[in-house]
Amino acid sequence: MVQDSSTQTLTDLTFKVENVGVYYGSALAVRDVFLDIPKGQIVAFIGPSGCGKSTILRCFNRMNDLIPSARMTGRIIYHDTDIYARSVDPVELRRRIGMVFQKPNPFPKSIYENISFGAKINGYQGDMDELVEQSLRRAAIWEEVKDKLNESGLSLSGGQQQRLCIARAIAIEPEVILMDEPCSALDPISTLKIEELMQELKEQYTIIIVTHNMQQASRVSDKTAFFNAEATESGGKVGYLVEYDDTQTIFTNPQQEYTRDYVSGRFG
Ligand SMILES: Nc1ncnc2c1ncn2[C@@H]1O[C@H](COP(=O)(O)OP(=O)(O)OP(=O)(O)O)[C@@H](O)[C@H]1O
């Protein structure tokens, strides 16, 4: 068990991020990130474009492994396991730490198969009809699709497709859901539905969301991490974590002036 110097013990945490940096080739994209992600809460990552929010998000389920030039330094502890340890299977890790992307990306298969596909691959032995219904219900889309489960997932609206993708993520029973700007391609009503859904989901899952929408971060999250980027001597930019605190504190009484300026719309 890794010792924690703060008051929160590791059992309250899903992740402990220790001094994480990410390079793409020789360029350092984001540096020195320390974060405790509490269990069963929603954590939002905000900050101007290019400050490394998505890069850090992708570290949590080793999605950066799929980018050949990417290299991470530091450690991410998931419960008591270093997720970059040799013994960790990234495929199994991604089963426990699901991801929803900016652009809804249902499989070009039926609504039913969008849910059953991953479960089958994972050797699900239970009642598949029940799993499909339960997952779609939990993602608040069952009523809209229950009469057309054999139609293509691609026939749905953008907002419905995103909820289908959330249902697909839920169906493999992850513990964590990573969301990379999940509402940026959606209209306000669909966005509201996803936000409501997140509130329901956090009872069962830890959620980390990257969002450009500050109102969204303040509405949905319990904690907020504000990232910024600064110029490097070589003329590039490197992202870093400016401040991480309860969302209410970040939006009403931040400690750092950069945070205050950003959340009040003075830059970014
Ligand atoms: N696959 C990649 N290859 C090389 N550089 C990359 C790659 N992905 C991101 N970067 C670089 O890393 C830095 C951080 O990018 P990242 O997408 O993580 O930032 P972000 O804060 O999520 O930005 P945005 O809000 O625009 O999505 C940027 O300078 C970006 O150009």
From TrEMBL:
UniProt entry tagged with the keyword Nucleotide-binding: yes
Keywords: ATP-binding, Nucleotide-binding, Transport
ABC transporter domain residues: 15-254
Gene Ontology MF terms: ATP binding; ATP hydrolysis activity; phosphate transmembrane transporter activity
One Pfam short name: ABC_tran
GO cellular component, one term: membrane
GO annotation terms (biological process): phosphate ion transmembrane transport
InterPro entries, per database record: AAA+_ATPase, ABC_transporter-like_ATP-bd, ABC_transporter-like_CS, P-loop_NTPase, PstB-like
Transport found in the keyword field: yes
NCBIfam families: 3a0107s01c2
Official protein name in the record: ABC transporter protein
Species lineage: Bacteria, Bacillati, Cyanobacteriota, Cyanophyceae, Nodosilineales
